[in-house]
């Protein structure tokens, strides 16, 4: 099979799985769901591996969808190193997580069980479409579909009000992002008259764009306001999808979904779509300098902001959610300063260790009978040894300790930001990233110690918890191994060694223009040691309690963080309540009179003879006519103004 | 005072001329013949066999009419007929084919529905036939008088079928409201036509265009006429703020009627708007463009926002229809531009959208028909719960319709919107397109909201029945929503051909 | 263009003014001494004993409407009759077609019971 067919197979396998499960899943024995659900993702992973081994690189146009004058929409998939890399992460980590879900979702009834895997496969399909799309139309479709499947999965337990509300919030935020995306693509289309990446990027460069060196050596052309506008609008989409400031409030709430969903969608894959977008659009951002700087600033601020909130969260999944926001902030920071391959390395590393953390947390929650409050855990280390060890590996990777993968990826980003020559902004964002790294050490320590160390909490729901079944443990352990040894493929943070990911991606996203020095390496080690010390210090604060809790000293800070900087309240005040008022007004003053009109008018209409007349007198027809006439008057005025001008 | 055209009518009307004129309106004539035949059949046969027989006659009529229109599209010499009062050009043939297909779909869905609800079937089909004829007349009218004739034939038939569920107060309410507001709007249109006639001295649309081209100054009479007609047209296509009747009437009317109306009146209304505004008043385009832009923006905003809070599927789709009218108006507005390429692109996008809108919107309604029991329609969102367990096929098709309406590729709704919006941009109405894009993203929310009960694993298992004919109609609609999305070229070419550049004048 | 309508406008104004003046004058000048028996509903000097809004059978309206519809249709015969000779055979046959359609409608009404009073 050629590259095009293979790529199509990668894309269509999960779709086929979803269709099978949607159509017949609930009627077939459960074993079918168990096999088909994860099976198609594994199959997709294997095909992606084939593409990877073949070193496929092609912009395959399957057919021309629309050809109308100069306007052409092809159905094309872009298979290059970046999309293969993303596909590997999505299908690889995805397959592990979907396998894990086989165990995690076991308590559901057959119909819901099948529904869950349907949604998961739809999600994998959408995400693959997003990264494989070779033009803006399909990018937007994938973009919208991942939002859709995320909405469905957050609201999976649709009987719970909180889940439905969280799903709606995520949807609204994502819609804001979608609008930004569409308008951004629209601006690009009106400027460059094309919807394919290849042609848009070609317009941005004097060198021909070939599938092999996908605009890698871009020549600077003049920045323009329409380009900046497009870049900013696309950034709105990226920010919403990746839960960056100020469109971040949906992600913590999204933890209402089942834990495998949190692991797959809200940690490993979907939320990193924003990073992918900026990376894919790098020819635009390389030119649009203001938007590019905005990416870095948003990333750095979000990283610090989310990490600080994570310190006070007590729900284990929410800590991980804020930590996810914070880590994606790092990736934004990296793409913002132009260290694209470092960002993607961190994306992969984060997918490993964050999925690991979420699934391990899922095991804990499972053992604790759905209790998510860390204060009610304590002393789980002896009872859940395997989970605890995995969680520790994930935590240390998150903190960034040698030799775990998180160290190499995060420090490479910080090193790149620090060493970027002649750039004050980079130095500033490095500073923020450095502080964030320290806070990360602290909140991660707090989470681990509170949950696993010390004595069991008196409020613990389960006295003698049991370790999860193998189907839930093995994926966790696989990821634990990957998080431990995965770092060796790229050790540039130490100044020497291989750099497999960068070598692989540089052909697409361009080589980092500058090299780090010895100062970076020293700083990374310092960062690591300080963060590690803070990790240990958390033990004193939260387990031994020998050190007085910082919150007693700064109660206002505690409140501020617990309230998440009052973002939800501000949004409520600024948007939700006025909108509610408008909708409510529309309902009570416009809708209900009409609906009531049906009910009240009913008795009048049935009276023979006078039916139509009494209807006009019931006052509701009058409303129609009133609006009708008002509209006519406005129209007349508009025309008169137009005609006299 | 304008000299009123007191031309002496040539009274010699030869047989050959009569045949030529008749062949120009052959699809309408065919259907009219079958309408009369259906009435006779309805009278002659015993009661028990009437419904089926009339349905059969109607089906043959629609198919023949479609075939005639198709033949004339390919081989006919299309041109004006009856001294310019009607025409058989490709524009009218395009709509005639559309309406014939709509008639077939309606027949397929309504027949079993009428049986289930124990309604008298014969007269229903006759009335729908009459409404279809009215729509066709509207599409082929090149005179204000003929247009009004078609409009009234269409409206009066619909007033009756809206109240077809006589035992139901809601249906009565629907008919009464539609009659009252419809009469109101017809009066507006008639006043507007009268003023335009007063200003130009002719009711023939091409002559109106010629007269206006000659006179440079804009006549307040005609401007007022544009306002009044525009308001009436906006009513027919259920565009805000003249949409208030839509949710109530849609909700009260029996579902097949709602499905028929939601597509048919809208398409007929747009045919009339294009014929009169773009065809007859191209020189006053800046004026009516302002009017339509206002109506389009209001429709998109009001329709989409109000749809969000609905819990009745009929009302939801009614508001969705209001919003869709707003999108389509963008194409009409582009159809008023001076640049012939932009104009043709705009109008072609309207034709394309109306054609494909038929399948997705009708399909969505048709799925809901099966929820109806003998006692009435069921159209709450919660009535759809667990549809995928009760009928996986229908659940998938419903998903197709909703995603297509929401504008997801690869479904055809996406292309419809794409063409409309590109036309809008090239016409320079970027602000309107931005509103449209934003609002259509908002619309995804309520279309998807319909899908949640459809795919929920509820335990409801009450049996649903789709008759063979309605299943075929729904499957056809769903398949076309997808296939036309994958290969939109054919319909696009047809809709481009359907816009005769000649009737705009130079 | 609009100037040609000025006489019409003047005419309308005169009419409105005249009507207004007449009504106002009679209201101002005429004696107005209300009395209960004067204000009572007046119908040929007989006091009404049933409500004025009497319900009529729906059949009445149906018959009335049918009459009007066919009445209007028959108006079409007049212009045809005037130019019948010029239209020749074609016009005659066309009119028979028209009458045939009307006949079908009549048969329909008849058969469906539209003309039955009970």
Write structural notes for this entry.
The complex is a heterotrimer of chains A (645), B (506) and C (118). Chain A is mainly alpha-helical. Chain A has 26 helices and two strands. Chain A is globular, with a radius of gyration of 27 Å. In chain A, 56% of the residues are buried. The model of chain A is unreliable at 207-214, 216-220 and 593-619 (pLDDT under 50). Chain B has 506 residues and is mainly α. Helix content of chain B is 75%, strand content 1%. Chain B has 20 helices and two strands. Chain B has helices at residues 15-24, 26-44, 47-75, 90-116, 121-140, 144-162, 169-200, 205-214, 220-236, 245-252, 255-280, 285-308, 313-334, 340-369, 387-390, 392-406, 412-426, 430-455, 468-486, 489-497; strands spanning 80-81, 86-87. Chain B starts with 14 loop residues before the first helix and ends in a 9-residue tail after the last helix. By secondary structure, chain C is mostly helical. Chain C is built from five helices and no strands. Chain C has one domain (2-111): NADH:ubiquinone/plastoquinone oxidoreductase, chain 3 (Methane Monooxygenase Hydroxylase, Chain G, domain 1), CATH 1.20.58.1610. The mean pLDDT of chain C is 82. Chain C is flat. Chains in contact: A-B, A-C, B-C.
* SSE class of chain A: mainly alpha
Say how many strands of chain A there are.
Answer: 2
Q: What's the quaternary structure here?
A: heterotrimer
Radius of gyration of chain B over all CA atoms, rounded = 22 Å
Task: Report, as a whole number of angstroms, the end-to-end distance of chain A.
Answer: 65 Å
Low-confidence stretches of chain A: 207-214, 216-220, 593-619
> Which descriptor suits the 3D outline of chain B?
globular
How many domains of chain B? 1
Low-confidence stretches of chain B: 1-6, 502-506
Question: How are the secondary structure elements laid out?
Answer:
The complex is a heterotrimer of chains A (645), B (506) and C (118).
Chain A: H1 3-24, H2 30-54, E1 58-68, E2 71-79, H3 81-104, H4 110-132, H5 136-154, H6 161-192, H7 197-203, H8 225-241, H9 250-253, H10 259-268, H11 273-280, H12 282-287, H13 289-310, H14 316-337, H15 340-367, H16 385-399, H17 405-419, H18 424-452, H19 470-485, H20 500-509, H21 518-544, H22 550-553, H23 555-562, H24 567-606, H25 611-617, H26 620-644
Antiparallel strand pairs in A: 1-2
Helix pairs in contact in A: 1-2, 1-4, 2-3, 2-4, 3-4, 3-10, 3-15, 3-19, 4-5, 5-6, 6-8, 8-11, 8-13, 10-15, 11-14, 13-14, 13-18, 14-15, 14-17, 14-18, 15-16, 15-17, 15-19, 15-20, 16-18, 16-19, 17-18, 17-21, 18-21, 24-25
Chain B: H1 15-24, H2 26-44, H3 47-75, E1 80-81, E2 86-87, H4 90-116, H5 121-140, H6 144-162, H7 169-200, H8 205-214, H9 220-236, H10 245-252, H11 255-280, H12 285-308, H13 313-334, H14 340-369, H15 387-390, H16 392-406, H17 412-426, H18 430-455, H19 468-486, H20 489-497
Antiparallel strand pairs in B: 1-2
Helix pairs in contact in B: 2-3, 2-5, 3-4, 3-5, 4-5, 4-11, 4-14, 4-19, 5-6, 5-11, 6-7, 6-11, 7-9, 7-10, 8-11, 9-11, 9-12, 10-13, 11-13, 11-14, 12-13, 12-18, 13-14, 13-17, 13-18, 14-16, 14-17, 14-19, 14-20, 16-18, 16-19, 17-18, 17-19
Chain C: H1 6-29, H2 36-39, H3 58-75, H4 77-82, H5 84-111
